Amino acid sequence: MALEKLWGKTAIRIVEGDITAYDGDAVVNAANNEFWMGSGVAGAIRRKGGQSIEAEAMAGGPALPGEVRVTGAGRLSVRFVLHAAVMAQDLVTSEAFIRMATRNALSRADEVGIRRLAFPALGTGVGGFPLADCARAMLKEVWDYLAGNPSSSLEEVAFYLFGEEAARTFERTLAGFPGLGSGDG
User: Fold this and answer.
1) Half-sphere exposure of 103 toward its Cβ, with a 13 Å CA cutoff?
2) What is the domain count for the chain?
3) In what helix (H) or strand (E) does residue 32 lie, and over which residues does it extend?
4) Is residue 184 assigned to a domain?
5) Domain for residue 111, yes or no?
6) 2 forms bridges with which residues in the sheet?
7) Is there a contact between 119 and 167 (Cβ–Cβ < 8 Å)?
8) Are 3 and 13 in contact (CB under 8 A)?
9) Quick one: DSSP state of residue 180?
10) CB–CB of 36/85 below 8 Å?
11) Is-contact 91 81, C-beta < 8 A?
């Protein structure tokens, strides 16, 4: 399952799949502000990419929720992991944290020259944030960021989502954005 829409020169893709299998330039990790990698997306990235990712991320912490740290990607097929702090040590998130983390990940991606980036549904696992609210917040931040940064290096922003419900929720939300052109999906 995949849906693709175009915003200017940037393809926005919705994919039901494993973010650790993404073959772009970078993946986003749904992190806590200390950057230790427990379960969920973070655990999957650590298991497949190696402990060095967590060690490098933790060396850059702690951070305020909403901040993003860039590390190497260990054994993953991407070059970078962007650790987006969507919660503090209490493991509670909010729409504001998710929006800031999304915006800051996009900005950091541009700073590093990333062309293809994949996000998970930030804050919906351990953070327990409602999926539909997450989809609206994250897609709106991508929309606003790309509209405000026409010279962005981003050619693709993908959302790799765990499970059909998550993918369908993001697809419905993306389909509701006016002015997006159809892609190949």
Assistant:
1) 16
2) 1
3) strand 26-32
4) no
5) yes
6) 15
7) no
8) yes
9) P
10) no
11) no
